[in-house]
Write a structure and sequence with these properties.
Number of strands: 7
Distance between the termini: 9 Å
Number of domains: 1
Oligomer: single chain
Length: 212
């Protein structure tokens, strides 16, 4: 699916950890194959951080998690939008995305599903389609937010990629109370998607736009 020559791949995460949850195994695989992966997170969710933790803890955690996957620290972009307010800042977010397009010039962009129930996720997905009109786009799966999801693209993974994904997510100690933040779920979902295409593990995506 991905060309053998080095590709530039951009992962758009509305909130820190969304990218790892949706395509952490794929990030690990692509970096292993020599592709350049860039990661942009638009909120560190300070208003949602448990009260006993530092408000900026997710900034520390996303830096550790993306480094675990192999993302170059210079390829990590962090923005400071307040959680659950993205729809009020559509133009600013669109401009940030256009700037990312001009700076990274990606061959492939990963976004949340266009039917994702979280308002911030929906805003990033919609504005990304405007910013990346001439780029291949895949939506990643976040089952707890997806009432429906078209499984139209599978990326096979090996055990080492699933382990890298979980190792990255373990850095998010501030999110360990989330019901999906456990190894059994992460491995189970990867195994389920793998069974669908007769491999050990996989991550699945919706094809939004594909340019050959």
């Amino acid at each position: 699916m991905i060309k053998s020559t080095k590709q530039r791949i951009l992962v758009l995460a509305p909130h820190t950890d969304d990218g790892e949850l949706g395509c952490g195994g794929t990030i690990s695989k692509f970096i292993e194959e020599g592709h350049e992966v860039y990661y942009a997170a638009f909120s560190a969710c300070e208003l949602s951080v448990p009260s006993h933790l530092p408000k900026d803890i997710l900034i520390t955690e996303v830096k550790k998690a993306t480094a675990e996957l192999g993302v170059d620290p210079e390829h990590l972009f962090l923005y400071n939008y307040e959680v659950r307010t993205f729809s009020y800042h559509r133009q600013e977010i669109l401009q940030d995305l256009i700037n990312l397009k001009n700076q990274v010039n990606p061959d492939l962009v990963f976004i949340p599903s266009l039917t994702d129930l979280h308002q911030d996720h929906g805003t990033i997905a919609q504005e990304a389609l405007r910013a990346f009109k001439t780029t291949s786009v895949l939506s990643y799966e976040l089952p707890w937010n997806n009432l429906s999801f078209n499984t139209t693209c599978f990326i096979p993974l090996e055990e080492k990629h699933v382990q890298k994904k979980w190792s990255a997510l373990e850095h998010y100690q501030s999110q360990k109370h989330r019901p999906y933040a456990n190894e059994e779920f992460i491995r189970g979902l990867a195994r389920t998607r793998g069974v669908q295409i007769n491999v050990s593990f996989a991550e699945v995506f919706e094809v939004v736009r594909w340019i050959f």
